[in-house]
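Reviewer 2 asked us to include a model.

Predict the structure of this chain.
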Amino acid sequence: MKTATFKEWTLTTLDKAFGLRQIWACPLMDKWANREIEIDDFEKKTLLNLQKSLIRGGRAWNEVELENKFISPVIMTADIDDEQIGYFLERSLSGIVGDYELSGIVDGMIATGFREPDIPLFCLQEYKRSVDNQGSPDAQALAAMLVAREKNNNQKPIYGVFVVGLVWHFIILNGHEYFISKTYHADDEEIFVIFKMLKALKPIIKNELINSC
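Predicted model (structure tokens):
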């Protein structure tokens, strides 16, 4: 059994090791991006205040500052947590995928459970700007999603996002195929698209992933 951490991979090495294929059209992503989600006045005001700080200092923030000052507040504004699912930070995730034991720390995940994560259904990876960073942010997110897929017995699509500074990309892994979204910029009007997609995760997870059987 080979062992590897999430940060060791690129998309190319993941494709070769696990028989993955990137696709260029994805009805599930279209459905996610176009879901009817309302943003109320409080949410809009909160997002604009968070965005103001991001525009002022975000390009100079380290990963901890970006996480604490922007990413997590935006996700918490989406009201994900209840007694069935929760948003968890800096949790270890490991599992057997093919001939590999994959492991690492996931920057953020939405999983079943409200005190401790049980089954992960959404993984977030934030790009680390440290000098020893390996792999790529898209591959780090996808590697974590592969472990999440195994924990779901390969039966459910896994949702994810990777964040590089002010830029967000959403990912869906379904079976052995994955799709990476267009680029969304958090420092312009696309912050509202980002938020709608995050807010849509709760009904997607609860209605289509957990309770669909």
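The beta strands are 2-5, 21-22, 85-97, 100-112, 120-126, 158-164, 167-174, 177-180, 184-185. The radius of gyration is 16 Å. We have added this to the supplementary material.
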